[in-house]
Specification:
disordered N terminus, 6 helices, single chain, alpha+beta, Deoxyribonuclease I, Chain A
Length: 295
C-alpha cells in the first residue's frame, strides 16, 4: 500500500512541476538596501538542506551579500558531527557572531536548528511542537527560542521548522505553542523559519492533492490575530523546484522596511531576507527573564 501511495505522490509532484506557471523573480522591491542605523536590523532565514560541507555553505553565504551582511540568521536542517561543532557554529565563528544551536535529538546529525547573531544571545531554549504521526519519516519538530540584546533593547526570536505532510489546521496546531508564548510577551518579537506551507491537501499524511493555493493565507490570518505581520507576498517562491512559498518571517513590534528572496546554490530553498526598524524600548518597562515560560 505504501508503495502505491509513494508512487502516487511522485506522480502528482511531477505533474505539478510540469504544469505550474513560472515562479516569481527571487527579489521583491527596494533591493538597494538601507543605510545601517542603530534602530534597523536585517534578518535572514535559510534551510541548509542537510548540507555537511562547511566550505560549500561558507562559499555560497559569502557570495550572497544580504546573507553575508545580515545581522541575524535563522537556519534549519543544520548538520553537525558527533562531538564536534555544527555548521552553524563554524559559520558563526567565521563571522565573529554568537550562535545558539540544538539538534533534533540524539544520534540525529543533520536536522538541527540554529540562530546566528551579530548581537549577544542572552538566553536560548528548545520548545517542542505538536507532533504528528506521518507513517514514515516522522519527526519530532521543535522551535529554537532566543533572546537577543540589540541596540534598541531586547528582541525575541523563535526559529521553527514544521512538518511537510500536514494540512493547514494541523500546521497551525503545530505552531500554536510558539504563537501562544509569543502573544504573552511584549516588545519586538519575530517568529520565522521553514513553515512548509505547501499548496497540497494531504490524505493520511501520505498522498498529496494539489489545492491551488490559499493555504498560506491561513497562516497569515492566524499570525495577524496575535499581532504579527510579514513583509513577504503570497506569490513569493522559496522552494523553486515546486514553486512553493515555504519560508517566513513574521514580526510584532518591528516595522518592515525592505525584503527579498535570495537564491543559494547549495540549498533547494531560497533564503529570505528582510530589514526592519526596531522600536526603542523603555529600560524601565523592558522584558525580563521572568517573562519566559521555562518549561
Amino acid at each position: 500500500m505504501k508503495y502505491w501511495l509513494s508512487l502516487g505522490f511522485l506522480t502528482v509532484l511531477a505533474v505539478l512541476v510540469l504544469a505550474a506557471p513560472p515562479g516569481n523573480l527571487p527579489n521583491l522591491p527596494n533591493l538597494e538596501g538601507l543605510p545601517p542605523t542603530a534602530d534597523t536590523i536585517s534578518i535572514a532565514s535559510l534551510n541548509l538542506a542537510h548540507e555537511a560541507s562547511f566550505e560549500k555553505v561558507l562559499h555560497d553565504v559569502e557570495a550572497a551579500p544580504r546573507l553575508r551582511n545580515a545581522d541575524v540568521l535563522l537556519l534549519q536542517e543544520v548538520a553537525h558531527v558527533e562531538g564536534g561543532p555544527s555548521i552553524a557554529s563554524r559559520l558563526a565563528e567565521r563571522m565573529n557572531y554568537s550562535v545558539a544551536f540544538s539538534p533534533e535529538g540524539p544520534k540525529i546529525y543533520d536536522r538541527g536548528l540554529a540562530v546566528v547573531s551579530k548581537f549577544p544571545i542572552e538566553d536560548s531554549k528548545v520548545e517542542w511542537l505538536t507532533p504528528y504521526n506521518l507513517h514514515f519519516h516522522t519527526r519530532h519538530r521543535f522551535a529554537l527560542a532566543v533572546k537577543l540584546r540589540v541596540p534598541a533593547g531586547e528582541l525575541r526570536i523563535w526559529n521553527a521548522h514544521l512538518d511537510t505532510r500536514i494540512n493547514p489546521d494541523q500546521r497551525l496546531g503545530q505552531l500554536d505553542p510558539v504563537m501562544q508564548e509569543a502573544a504573552k510577551l511584549t516588545g519586538p518579537r519575530l517568529i520565522g523559519g521553514d513553515f512548509n506551507t505547501n499548496d497540497f491537501y494531504w490524505i493520511d499524511h501520505v498522498l498529496p492533492i494539489p489545492h491551488g493555493g490559499g493555504y498560506r493565507s491561513t497562516v497569515r490570518r492566524a499570525m495577524a490575530k496575535f499581532g504579527f505581520q510579514t513583509p513577504f507576498q503570497d506569490q513569493l517562491t522559496t522552494l523553486p523546484i515546486l514553486r512553493q512559498h515555504l519560508d517566513w518571517l513574521f514580526v510584532n513590534g518591528l516595522e518592515p522596511l525592505s525584503s527579498s528572496a535570495e537564491p543559494i546554490p547549495f540549498s533547494d530553498h531560497h533564503a529570505i531576507w528582510a530589514a526592519f526598524r526596531v522600536a526603542r524600548q523603555d529600560p524601565g518597562t523592558g522584558l525580563s527573564d521572568t517573562a519566559v515560560d521555562r518549561r
